[in-house]
Design a protein that fits this description.
By secondary structure, this protein is α/β, with parallel strands linked by helices. Helices cover 33% and strands 23% of the residues. The chain has seven helices and seven strands; from the N terminus they run αβαβαααββαβαββ. A seven-stranded mixed beta sheet has the order 3-2-1-4-5-7-6, with helices on both faces. Helix 1 packs parallel to helix 2.
C-alpha cells in the first residue's frame, strides 16, 4: 500500500506523533481517524503501530478523486491527484483491494469507511486521539473538521494537510489561517511548509 505523504516527508512527522500518542495515553484504547486515505498507506502504517493499542478509521470514496466537488473540473483541487493516478494507477484505490491487503497483514484494527465525507459520518466514533484531514477540497475539509473537532480528546491531535503552503490549494490555506487557527480549542504544535502540514493540539 502506498503512502503519498511519504513524498514530502510528512509521513515521518506523523509517525513520530503517532508514537508519542501511545506514550501520552498509556491506558486508553486509542482511536485514530484519517480522512482522504488514497492508496491506504497511512492507515496501514498506523494500524501496524497501534496494533493491540488502538483502532484506526480510514475514510475515502475508494473510487478516486470526487472532482464534482471542485469549483471546476480543471481547478487545482480537482486535478491535484491526477499525477499520482498516472504514476501509480488506480487499482490500489479500491475498497476491496485495500481491505484484502489489510486482512492479509491481519490489520483488523483498521476499519475502512466508504463514501464522501458528510454530516454525521463519524456517528460510530465517540472519542478521537489523532486525526488527519487530507481531503483537498475546501467543502470536504470543512465537513471533516465539523465531524471530528468536538470529538478529539483533550491532549489529542488534529493534523491538516495542504493548509500551510498556499501555492497549490490557496483556499485551504485561507480557511486554516482565518478559521481553524482562531478556534481557541487548539494550540499549534507544528507547521511545516515543506511538508505542507499543520498539527494542532486540543487544549480546551
Amino acid at each position: 500500500m502506498i503512502e503519498l505523504n511519504s513524498l514530502n516527508g510528512s509521513d515521518r512527522i506523523l509517525r513520530a506523533l503517532q508514537g508519542e500518542i501511545i506514550k501520552e495515553f498509556p491506558y486508553d484504547l486509542l482511536i485514530g481517524v484519517e480522512m482522504g486515505i488514497a492508496y491506504g498507506g497511512g492507515v496501514e502504517a498506523l494500524g501496524k503501530l497501534w496494533q493491540g493499542r488502538g483502532i484506526v478509521y480510514g475514510f475515502d470514496t475508494f473510487e478516486g478523486h470526487p472532482k464534482q466537488l471542485g469549483s471546476s473540473s480543471t481547478s487545482p483541487e480537482s486535478t491535484c491527484m491526477d499525477i499520482h493516478y498516472a504514476k501509480y494507477g488506480t487499482e490500489g484505490l479500491s475498497y476491496d483491494y485495500q481491505r484484502a491487503e489489510l486482512n492479509r497483514q491481519e490489520l483488523y484494527n483498521v476499519r475502512l469507511v466508504k463514501g464522501l465525507v458528510v454530516d454525521g459520518c463519524c456517528w460510530m466514533i465517540k472519542n478521537i486521539h489523532y486525526c488527519l484531514l487530507d481531503l483537498d477540497f475546501l467543502v470536504s475539509m470543512k465537513l471533516g473538521y465539523e465531524n471530528v473537532s468536538s470529538k478529539i480528546v483533550l491532549g489529542g491531535y488534529l493534523c491538516l494537510h495542504d493548509v500551510v503552503g498556499h501555492k497549490i490549494l490557496p483556499d485551504l490555506h485561507r480557511w486554516y489561517e482565518n478559521e481553524v487557527k482562531k478556534d481557541k480549542r487548539w494550540e499549534v504544535v507544528f507547521e511545516g511548509e515543506k511538508e505542507d502540514l499543520a498539527i494542532l493540539g486540543r487544549v480546551k
